[in-house]
């Protein structure tokens, strides 16, 4: 009797587990979908092409009409099949040129006007000024996210772009949809909050831990697998690179991809960095290598060691190729390092020998950070944690590598031209609460640096 009871109990337990698993699978699948209209947004800008995506409630054949002015949309691309999800690539475009577009179907124009425009990427190797806007952990829709957005747009109105554009690219540092990466949460936090920006500013994304909880992320975004925007083909949308102006931007996946030295992401990164010919190297990924914020980069239990992996395994490779700026999110505050080099251990092992420049970095207070014009290894990197674009947590923010840390909502603007990079943290009140500058010069001699710890072999 006892044996029969145990057998029956085991069957019931297995059945319950199976039902719970099916229920979880159903929840993940349904929350990865979104039914409704989604305004146009721009993806994968290149010198000669751009992708425009949008969504409709009913099946229809999408049409993009485009041209040199809002009232001169004399070219058209139409989808071959009807659907709710629309993705049209415009090709054969001129570099660094503004175009206007309207989205709709063969009989109706649904989205049109001055707001719907784009500018193709600059000519390969161009040194004209570009402006990048980084938002981190922006996935909580509401007044805080709106205040961060409005603060930057107001500041941009007072600081016009040299090329008559507010910003060239919008880049998300992960966790774009709280709490669980559901498609409806992307709609609220990204597509509703930033609709007026996304209609004319291409968006790039890094993969965060909250994005990983549903299947929506890779359905929503089109990201380059084949090196179509510059850089080496990665063969995956999890990580990729692109060129824009004088910058080579690398976006890594610190959440889901293999982070070992033998892993495909590391090997791809090595090849991509070796092939890079751009003067400025900027890298973005979600989990920060240095933070004492709402997450602790010293703790291997925190985020299952992802922050340590990025610091110990990937930073030696990045710094050996002269990386200038690394931006991450995950901790919901702002932290910015000194110009540092060769620190791959815990915070208690950090000392002044790893600081290349002790200054504040603020051009108004001290000389800017200086580096050689060429990509010389180990000449210093600035690490930024900018995870407060929609929520703010309390934390000690006392990592010794950080020259400036704040418990404040905001986002980061980065201006890059031929020989100068300016980065500003704009608070939700519209104030520039941190500003540092890196200048490169052919006359700047490479600094002799202490030997680095070898990369961790695991």
Write the layout of secondary structure elements.
Elements: H1 2-31, E1 38-43, E2 50-60, E3 63-67, E4 75-78, E5 83-90, E6 98-105, E7 108-111, E8 117-119, E9 130-135, H2 143-158, E10 169-172, H3 183-192, H4 195-198, E11 203-205, H5 216-220, E12 240-244, E13 247-251, H6 264-275, E14 280-284, H7 306-320, E15 325-328, E16 334-337, E17 339-340, E18 355-357, E19 369-372, E20 382-386, E21 402-406, E22 410-416, E23 420-427, E24 432-441
Parallel strand pairs: 9-10, 10-11, 13-14, 14-15, 15-20, 19-24
Antiparallel strand pairs: 1-2, 2-5, 3-4, 3-6, 6-7, 6-8, 9-22, 12-13, 16-20, 16-21, 17-18, 22-23, 23-24
Attribute tags:
20% helix, 24 strands, 28% strand, 3 domains, 458 residues
Distance between the termini: 52 Å
The parts where pLDDT drops under 50 for at least 5 residues are none
How many separate structural domains? 3
Question: Can you tell me the CATH topology of the largest domain?
Answer: Purple Acid Phosphatase, chain A, domain 2
CATH class of the largest domain: Alpha Beta
Looking at CATH, the homologous superfamily of the largest domain is Metallo-dependent phosphatases
The spatial strand order of the largest sheet comes to: 11-10-9-22-23-24-19
Q: Structural class from helices and strands?
A: alpha+beta
DSSP E strands, number: 24
Whole-number mean pLDDT: 92
